[in-house]
Amino acid sequence: MRLGSVPHVSATTTKRGERPAYRCAECGWTTAKWVGRCGECQAWGTVVEGLGPGGGAPRTAAVAPTRSPARSIVEIPVESAAARPTGVAELDRVLGGGIVPGAVVLLAGEPGVGKSTLLLDVAARAARGGRRVLYVTGEESAAQVRLRAGRIRALDPNLLLADETDLATVLGHVEQVSPDLLVLDSVQTIASAQVEGTAGGVAQVREVASALIQTAKARDLPVVLIGHVTKDGSVAGPRTLEHLVDVVCQFEGERHSRLRLLRATKNRYGPTDEVGCFDLSDTGILGVEDPSGLFVSQAIHAVPGTCLTVTLEGRRPLATEIQALVAPSAAPNPRRTTSGVDSSRLAMVLAVLQRRLGVRLADQDVYVSTVGGARAVEPAADLALALAAVSSRQEQALPRGLVAIGEVGLAGEIRTVTGVTQRLAEAARLGFTRAIVPAGALDEVRPPEGLTTVAAADLVEAVAEVLMDV
């Protein structure tokens, strides 16, 4: 080194004893060099420069005076934390009775599934009930939201609308309006000027969510956030977003179907096994209290290849019709096409039918579908799937008023499933007169009045009970 020259100092040079490292903002995983993808949680773009586990002095916080003394848990009143109904029965079912004051709810779903339409309807119902509602839109202009509100009849003077994308401005609206309910569409479109990065980034989403949660807790203000999802269906943004909020709901539905299902994957104030059903149309979105009729065809005459079952969506029983079509195939590899049914379970059921019952299916194309866009992916639909396939292969219609419930094993046995009591009660309510259930289920279940139950230990008994020429 020449005399008088100054050695180059890197911008990341730290004190002696500190080791420069990079830390994942999602899970805290550290690495000695920067990488684009976290090696622990596999998140992209979350690795930032920081100090490793052995670097830096430990941080401490000074003792601060308490705002109020700690009280016994039995002395804390709970009236202020009671859930308030939203006016939408299906949403209240999922939330556990309504929205709790100060709670932050995250509603996620694919584009076009109806998230904004649902929450605009919820906001209008709350406004008609005398509450002041602030609806903040960051994706559309106020005029566009006004057009949609007029189409679905969601207009009320107590519903205030603001189109903003800046976090400070949104908090200013909250301070000025003092709403009883805040709806933000969506959390990925709001950005803070105090944080680097574009809107929707990891740091921005975390900052926006933290600020809104702090405001909600300080004001006892219920907040509903709309969130985007990635292509695999998970909530976009940092994983900590789901940990910060109180309730996480998923809004699901197929584009070609009007049916929408709302599930709670996290709920600090209620159950997570309830499902809400909605009907999305051009004039708005309506709750469906009895969706079983949507999944059953209205055929007057019995048709070969159809069998009904009762599936459980959370704790909600839904009658579902499974249709199967078995046709001769000229191809060396016959087709197995499904819609609303798990393809792997179909392959297993067909293999059991061919091996245990001798039903010839190796040279047949098999098409299986559900009615109305329903999903019958649980094992309890195996028996109905098997009976529908055999009925289509033999060209014999199953008796009318029949429902089949049970899981099919590889040995051909029919295993019992959970919720048989609820399933049979739903079948009896819809007018079914005969049910085939696993033999072990009748030991613990009392059949409802008007429904005749037939116990079947294996597929041979079940098929012989409904189809004699097999």
TrEMBL record:
The lineage of its organism: Bacteria, Bacillati, Actinomycetota, Actinomycetes, Micrococcales. ATP binds at G109, E110, P111, G112, V113, G114, K115, S116. Residues 365-470 are annotated as: Lon-protease-like. SMART domains: AAA. DNA-dependent ATPase involved in processing of recombination intermediates, plays a role in repairing DNA breaks. Stimulates the branch migration of RecA-mediated strand transfer reactions, allowing the 3' invading strand to extend heteroduplex DNA faster. Binds ssDNA in the presence of ADP but not other nucleotides, has ATPase activity that is stimulated by ssDNA and various branched DNA structures, but inhibited by SSB. Does not have RecA's homology-searching function. A motif (RadA KNRFG motif) lies at residues 266-270. Gene3D superfamilies: 3.30.230.10, P-loop containing nucleotide triphosphate hydrolases (3.40.50.300). InterPro entries: AAA+_ATPase, DNA_repair_RadA, P-loop_NTPase, RecA_ATP-bd, Ribosomal_Su5_D2-typ_SF, Ribsml_uS5_D2-typ_fold_subgr, Rubredoxin_2. Belongs to the RecA family. RadA subfamily. GO terms for biological process: recombinational repair. The keyword Transport does not apply. PANTHER family: DNA REPAIR PROTEIN RADA (PTHR32472), DNA REPAIR PROTEIN RADA-LIKE PROTEIN (PTHR32472:SF10). Residues 80-229 form the RecA family profile domain. GO terms for molecular function: ATP binding; ATP-dependent DNA damage sensor activity; damaged DNA binding; hydrolase activity; zinc ion binding. Keywords: ATP-binding, DNA damage, DNA repair, DNA-binding, Hydrolase, Metal-binding, Nucleotide-binding, Stress response, Zinc, Zinc-finger. This is DNA repair protein RadA. It holds the Pfam family AAA_25. It comes from Cellulomonas composti. GO terms for cellular component: cytosol.
